[in-house]
Design a protein that fits this description.
This protein is an alpha/beta fold and 203 residues long. The chain has helices at residues 26-38, 60-63, 72-81, 100-105, 121-124, 132-140, 142-150, 157-163, 175-188, 191-201, and strands spanning 2-7, 10-15, 44-49, 53-55, 86-91, 94-96, 108-111, 116-118, 155-156, 168-169. The N and C termini lie far apart (35 Å).
Length: 203
């Protein structure tokens, strides 16, 4: 359900469980962590999904077993954040719940026009993953972060772009091409240069 492909300095990690809105099980979370670790030497890593939803977050059948607060979510997002190469989240559709972590940890986020964004921790009665509020605040500011987390507001792609939650919008058929277009300079550079520039930007 997690596919990994590497070609010409670019690693692509794909969530492939469209019949369940790409909801992540515990096993899939660990597959994602392994795939991100596998891509560690890549100049570019692209995270994407199959179908009309990038990921609905935690699989409902495992929420009662504590999946929503599993430390693996934080391990995954930190593994993405620690990548030396450029990381791009190509959001093929809606982003929800715990799946926010890996998207927020990416350097760039591109979404299709129909994507929706919501993080309903208040409705679920759980805390967000530890690093997510700060990463979200860094992108959209404290007030909008509170709007997302404390009111469970759902926003569309245009609003997400205006707020700075995503960086670009591309038609579904052009999404991966847009990701590769954005990745081209990093793909042609050295990993040390890509990582060095990222280090200069980090707070």
């Amino acid at each position: 359900m997690i596919e990994y492909h590497h070609d010409d300095h670019v690693s692509t990690i794909t969530i492939n469980r469209p019949e369940k809105a790409n909801a992540l099980t515990s096993a899939m979370l660990r597959e994602l962590i392994n795939a991100v670790e596998k891509s560690r030497g890549s100049r570019v890593t692209i995270l994407t999904g199959i179908g009309k939803v990038f990921s609905a977050g935690a699989a409902l059948e495992e929420v009662q077993n504590g999946l929503a607060t599993d430390p693996a979510w934080e391990i995954l997002s930190q593994a993405v954040a620690d990548q030396k190469g450029l990381t791009i989240c190509a959001l093929n559709g809606t982003l929800a719940g715990g799946a926010f972590g890996m998207a927020l940890a990416c350097d760039i986020r591109v979404a299709v026009p129909d994507a929706r964004f919501f993080y309903p921790v208040m409705k679920m009665g759980v805390y967000p993953q530890p690093s997510d509020p700060k990463r979200m605040e860094h992108l959209i500011g404290p007030s909008r972060t509170k709007m997302m987390l404390l009111t469970a507001r759902k926003i569309d792609a245009e609003t997400a772009l205006r707020w700075g939650l995503i960086d670009d919008i591309a038609a579904p058929g052009d999404l991966i091409d847009r990701a590769h277009e954005l990745a081209a300079p990093a793909k042609a550079a050295s990993l040390d240069l890509v990582g060095g520039i990222k280090d200069m930007i980090k707070r």
